[in-house]
Design brief:
Length: about 400
Amino acid sequence: MQSMPDVSPTKWHLAHTTWFFETFLLAEHDPGYSLFDPDFGYLFNSYYEALGDRHPRPCRGLVTRPSLERVRDYRRAVDECLVASLDGFAARDDWPHIAALIDLGCHHEEQHQELLLTDIKHVLAQNPLAPAYHDAPATEEGRAPDLAWHAFEEGVYEIGHQGDGFAYDNETPRHRRYVHGFALASRLVTNGEYRAFIEDGGYGDARLWLSDGWDWVRAGSRTAPLYWRRADDGWQQFTLHGLEPLDEDEPVAHLSHFEADAFARWAGARLPREEELEIAVRLHGEAGPVNDLGSGRLHPAIAPAAARGPLLQLQGDVWEWTQSAYMAYPGYRPPPGAVGEYNGKFMCNQYVLRGGSCVTPAGHWRPSYRNFFPAHAQWQFSGVRLAKDL
């Protein structure tokens, strides 16, 4: 199933992540390797122009063959060949380069674990029966803590990846940046706070919206976040557990950048800059349990009132939109070859999101992680934390 051009079928995700290992590891570095199926390079290449033609993204849902069984055979075969090749790779002079590609492939697969769930949610939401992907967790009771503000002093801060652990190329190089004094909200914006924006006519007030955002609202006759539905007894939202009553204390999710920005204006605040959120994480870390894929909840959770520290939900729950355009850090150069198309080519007309979500694999996120999407994107678990200038 493919419910819109930005969504890929589950079978395609399974095959594409395997194609990544086959193409960049086995075919490139194992002279004795034979392609599992020569047609798969055309079917499951995502966007690598250097690797030739590929099937159009909006038409991935029309690829009814190969079968799911054939794709699973493909995954098993590539896994077995890669494992069998590791000892030989490790003895070569170019092992550091090969090891880096294996590491990238594993993190690439984790990215698609997250995309797979967000795509499945969008597909199921188109079904009038509102089917559930997974059983709902135990009912959560509680109230979101009152919103407070935490100030950060102006100064010069170091931004970007540091240390020996894995990072994508767009998180580098580490550099210094002057930052004016700012304040961040202590938690994410809730469904109830966003509902107040709706009831105050937020979707009908052009003064709150960026020009392209206002065009987007009118073109789609939009009046609420993606997956919200009006019912006789109040709002409901579609979740991976099916259709549920809207919990006003949970973080609002599936906002576009346009919606997040308009809400911030309505609230007398603004969206954070990406470096502000990185500074906050590095200075304060995460206070309390992290609601990512490892929690098994598959849905944003109410901020824990008893957590220690001034800032809650810096990691997990929803990706936090920033006002920062996705662009290169000073001194950035994409890697040579086809793998250099992984991040750098998308540094145009997109905004950075920070913090991870409730379906980000545990351990995948780090303070310097830069996610990015176009301003109209809603199907990701994306929300908002407010910021202010001092």
